Amino acid sequence: MAALRPVLAALRDIKLAHTVFALPFALLAAFLARPLQPIWDGPPPEEGALDSLRGMNTPDRYETDWRSFSLQLVLIVLCMFFARTWAMLVNRLADATFDAQNPRTAGRAVAAGTLSPRTGWLIALTSAAAFWLTTLVFLAFSNPWPPILAPVALIWIALYAYTKRFTALCHLFLGAALAISPVCAAIAVDPSAVLSFSSPTLVSLLFLSAFITCWVAGFDIPYALADIDIDRTLNLHSIPARFGVARALVISRALHALAIVALVAFAVLAPPLGPITLVAAGAVAGLLFYEHLVLARRGVAGLPIAFFTVNGVISILFSGAAIIDTLV
Question: Is 103 helix (H, G, I), strand (E, B) or coil?
């Protein structure tokens, strides 16, 4: 049990519940990219048969191979868990000195000494290795791309931890770190649906990634309001520290306006989606408006609602509605 204490401390510190911001979108992308098998109610036509006038060459319907696809979904969830654990622990280890000087973050495991840097790096590197090993299972689906691209993904999502040292655009880097999850999930399920510049799935996923980038950056900026004074003291960069509270909130609103535009574009352009997704996009717009209304009225005191509750609902609501749309 004593050997598990550092692991439990690390997991408590990185808040697994916050996986809700990216995981639903990864699952949505997997559903968009899943290959559909042609099904004929009668015997399939012989190859080269010229029966098109009678409709014999047209499948009666298309179905998902749920046995294979379910395993792919499980692998995606595992990859998300290991990748997020890696990224969050790198963040905690990189920021330990700064966190110790910030009353809001001084209780974090590494900053407080509950988790030693050596053990923290051991868990982080183990998570990175587990992520790569999990991607190897996709070789069973004749897909070599996940293990090939895994090191790039690990580097990309860990980069955010260091951006606040040199740029106020760190919020956008955080958004971009989460935004690669749907593209990676789609590549894992069916690379042919994504790795083509003419693919409608790729075009739609780029708009989904643009939404995630602007959406995450837009709610991370108000979250950074709580640290505006300590960021300035420690010479750390953030949009609130650079531009002040009022301008930071204006930038946050502008990013969320762009996010809504990108989300609507995704809903319109993604091939299998329809009115259910468009209604959900409208609900997202309403929730983002409510989020900024809460911040305007309550300021930093409204952050728990605006940061976690509303945005967690947005992720689950939209992704769930769009997944239902793909099945309908």
Answer: coil
